[in-house]
Write a structure and sequence with these properties.
Helix content: 25-40%
Order of helices and strands: EEEEEHHEHHEH
Structural class: alpha+beta
Largest sheet: 5 strands, antiparallel
CATH topology of the largest domain: Arc Repressor Mutant, subunit A
Shape: globular
CATH architecture of the largest domain: Orthogonal Bundle
Strand order of the largest sheet: 1-2-3-4-5
CATH class of the largest domain: Mainly Alpha
Radius of gyration: 17 Å
Number of strands: 7
Length: 196
């Protein structure tokens, strides 16, 4: 089915709706301590998180919307809190991952188990999903490079085996990853622990 874009207006609010593969995807933007973000969702769950971009994030604002599902509001509250350096539990946020292959789903589930302020290596995530082969860590890195749910699936908490920052494809690259780890007080990324 071709991509269709609809704008729905009601009660003083506007939601961007996109019909793709017979599913309606909605989008809303919101401000965080690190900049303007956006989330996309379907009836099944969050289908994407867009981190701050130097050009901003155009689209309807959460402040202008009344008809946003509770799970979307919870996701926005959690992302906003995380980016402000507060502990936020996001593992209960439903994800629309039906277009994601089984390996990536497993990697994302294992990554969601990494607590705020903690880190794991790509190899540790690979072992958590039962991969002990030499390609496991590389496959985890490739899956996280395609992560459509940053912060909810906290790929910023996954580091190289030597503890160094590696591979962060979100806007701002490794500096964004470093800043998020600093805010969380992850070991080696700041003196204070905000989640202790």
């Amino acid at each position: 089915m071709p991509l269709e874009v609809h704008t729905a207006t009601g009660a003083g609010s506007t939601v961007l709706n996109v019909v793709m593969n017979e599913r309606v995807t909605h989008l809303v933007t919101f401000d965080t301590a690190l900049g303007r973000c956006a989330v996309r969702w379907t009836d099944a769950g969050i289908s994407g998180v867009l981190l701050p971009h130097r050009d901003g994030r155009p689209g309807p604002s959460i402040d202008d919307l009344a008809d946003v599902p509770r799970f979307v509001r919870r996701a926005i509250e959690g992302i906003t809190a995380t980016m402000a350096g507060e502990a936020a539990e996001l593992r209960d946020i439903p994800l629309d991952d039906q277009d994601i292959d089984e390996l990536r789903r497993a990697v994302y589930a294992a990554t969601r188990d990494i607590a705020p302020g903690a880190t794991r290596s790509y190899g540790e995530v690979a072992r958590a999903i039962g991969r002990t082969d030499h390609e496991g860590a590389r496959d985890v890195g490739a899956a996280l490079a395609k992560n459509p749910f940053p912060v909810i699936v906290p790929c910023h908490r996954v580091l190289a085996a030597n503890g160094k920052l590696h591979g962060f494809s979100a806007p701002g690259g490794l500096e964004t990853k470093r800043r998020m780890l600093e805010l969380e007080g992850a070991p080696g990324f700041g003196q204070q622990s905000l989640f202790g």
